[in-house]
């Protein structure tokens, strides 16, 4: 294994552990600060939008001057955001997801040797870290989770210092992308984003409202689903080798859509947890294959911007989802968000297949 890849995997592990712990508590924590569900949703949606816009700008800088230094410098934002939340400032949530994710993907792609395998390794490490991080709320208070997140995230960022980067940038910041035709074929990310935004950020608060469970049981659920997903990511390139990358993406997404529609019908938390875990495995199994596809199709000099452009396509509609769910929860309509998400995911899967069937195996 390349040394750079190993260091990037280490940083992924710590960042994901901190992010997973935050994801379990953030909506419930904001509610505990006295905010109603619709305002909680508005904060989470704004966080997604601010993150997406900032990430695209940072990724353009990374393509111009180097990915590593940009990722290192921007790592201060999540640390400041979690610190602000710890002090009771709800606006801190606007900073916790800032960082050039597209630049990080491009840096990892430079250190990858076999795309499907190496992106699966990244996904396995990410979900294993998610599993560990999601357990933090079972032993720590919500406020202590934020403090631990700061320490873990900061410690992992130091691994980036030793990563060697060949790419030096073009020395000129540009926001345009020559491969916009390829991005247009991947535009189903926008539909996915809206569907994900409706359900995912507000799920802990939804489970707390419907079943009366707190951060501890919810953390155990998130940890369990992450542990199972590690196996799914290991299987993904093997299934892709048998039936093809695009077919694997479509089949797994279709199974996930059916499980999302079943989820709100669950009468008990254990049954809901089982269905949600199966849904997470099905929907996320294709992630490493999708990442490999994107980084194969995009030229190296545009990868940071292209990955961030796809994140922007995902995140702008995603930012509207939490507020919509908060409004529906205030109205007492707890099932509709999941049916909306199932319909959107189904449409996105069909769109991806139609637009990419002549470009992907």
Low-confidence stretches: none
End-to-end separation = 27 Å
What's the count of strands? 0
Please provide the ordered H/E string of secondary-structure elements: HHHHHHHHHHHHHHHHHH
- Principal-axes geometry comes out as globular
What number is the mean pLDDT? 87
Helix count equals: 18
Percent of residues in beta strands: under 5%
Sheet with the most strands, sense and barrel status: none
How would you explain this protein's 3D organization?
The protein has helices spanning 3-32, 37-65, 67-74, 76-86, 101-110, 115-134, 136-139, 142-157, 180-185, 188-199, 203-211, 215-243, 245-262, 269-284, 287-297, 303-318, 321-330, 336-356. The chain contains 18 helices and no strands. The protein is an all-alpha fold and 361 residues long.
Indicate the topology.
Elements: H1 3-32, H2 37-65, H3 67-74, H4 76-86, H5 101-110, H6 115-134, H7 136-139, H8 142-157, H9 180-185, H10 188-199, H11 203-211, H12 215-243, H13 245-262, H14 269-284, H15 287-297, H16 303-318, H17 321-330, H18 336-356
Provide a compact summary of the structure.
The chain is 76% helix and 0% strand.
Brief descriptors of the model:
361 residues, single chain, mainly alpha, 18 helices
